[in-house]
């Protein structure tokens, strides 16, 4: 009784959001989104047969506005492969295995189980599936629509490669400009030390000292020959 009262309140669209928020059974025992779906299904009208459901789907205005049919996955997959005007949306849900009911304690249960296992081992079920699904004479070769769930295609990530190539191009241009700047605009100059102005030193009266033989020989070797030095601009901070 309480569940029926709750369902009537929850399906009452005349309630405002404030009044609906005051309901203590907002999410019990079923989430509100499912009750909304059930209300929309009742307003659209439940089809009495599979043919009527297919007709309503085909009479829809567009793929995003109209009638959607929820039914057995086997029937819907068969309708899809035999009719190019229909398509399956999303994945299968609420899976339940097929079963054959027998009387409790009946020996038919073990016989059925044995027969099904034998069909699986002989791959008879796979052969039947191949016959009625992949090699079905009623099967139609339909153009597959672009499925966004297949993954990211090259068209979706093409902009990333464009940005990378532009960045590489700008880096090459910057490198060439820096090479030209430091080579031709701020190149280093090499001058002869003999042409450099000699600093003036104040003469100091010091007591002459005589170098030793080893020091005199090393000093003579250091002063013999022409030498070069490099002069670079001083960095400014």
From TrEMBL:
<feature type="compositionally biased region" description="Basic and acidic residues">
    <location>
        <begin position="210"/>
        <end position="225"/>
    </location>
</feature>
<keyword id="KW-1071">Ligand-gated ion channel</keyword>
<keyword id="KW-0472">Membrane</keyword>
<keyword id="KW-1133">Transmembrane helix</keyword>
<keyword id="KW-0812">Transmembrane</keyword>
<dbReference type="GO" id="GO:0015276">
    <property type="term" value="F:ligand-gated monoatomic ion channel activity"/>
</dbReference>
<keyword id="KW-0813">Transport</keyword>
<feature type="region of interest" description="Disordered">
    <location>
        <begin position="197"/>
        <end position="237"/>
    </location>
</feature>
<dbReference type="GO" id="GO:0016020">
    <property type="term" value="C:membrane"/>
</dbReference>
<comment type="similarity">
    <text>Belongs to the glutamate-gated ion channel (TC 1.A.10.1) family.</text>
</comment>
<dbReference type="InterPro" id="IPR015683">
    <property type="entry name" value="Ionotropic_Glu_rcpt"/>
</dbReference>
<keyword id="KW-0406">Ion transport</keyword>
<keyword id="KW-0325">Glycoprotein</keyword>
<dbReference type="InterPro" id="IPR001320">
    <property type="entry name" value="Iontro_rcpt_C"/>
</dbReference>
<keyword id="KW-0407">Ion channel</keyword>
<protein>
    <recommendedName>
        <fullName>Ionotropic glutamate receptor C-terminal domain-containing protein</fullName>
    </recommendedName>
</protein>
<feature type="transmembrane region" description="Helical">
    <location>
        <begin position="157"/>
        <end position="181"/>
    </location>
</feature>
<feature type="domain" description="Ionotropic glutamate receptor C-terminal">
    <location>
        <begin position="3"/>
        <end position="135"/>
    </location>
</feature>
<keyword id="KW-0675">Receptor</keyword>
């Amino acid at each position: 009784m309480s569940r029926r009262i709750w369902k009537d309140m929850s399906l009452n669209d005349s309630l405002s959001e404030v009044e609906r928020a005051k309901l203590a059974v907002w999410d019990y025992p079923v989430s509100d989104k499912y009750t909304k779906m059930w209300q929309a299904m009742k307003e659209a009208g439940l089809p009495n047969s599979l043919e009527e459901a297919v007709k309503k789907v085909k009479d829809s205005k567009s793929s995003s506005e109209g009638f959607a049919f929820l039914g057995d996955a086997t029937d819907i997959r068969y309708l899809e492969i035999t009719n190019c005007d229909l398509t399956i949306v999303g994945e299968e849900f609420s899976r339940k295995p097929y079963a054959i009911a027998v009387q409790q304690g009946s020996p038919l249960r073990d016989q059925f189980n044995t027969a099904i296992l034998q069909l699986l081992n002989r791959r008879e079920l796979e052969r039947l599936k191949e016959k009625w699904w992949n090699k079905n004479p009623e099967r139609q070769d339909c153009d597959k629509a672009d499925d966004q769930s297949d993954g990211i295609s090259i068209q979706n990530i093409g902009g990333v490669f464009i940005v990378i190539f532009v960045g590489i191009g700008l880096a090459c241009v910057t490198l060439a400009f820096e090479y030209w700047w430091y080579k031709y605009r701020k190149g280093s100059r090499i001058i002869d030390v003999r042409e450099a102005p000699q600093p003036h030193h104040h003469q100091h009266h010091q007591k002459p000292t005589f170098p030793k033989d080893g020091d005199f020989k090393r000093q003579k070797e250091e002063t013999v020959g022409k030498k070069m030095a490099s002069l670079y601009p001083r960095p400014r901070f």
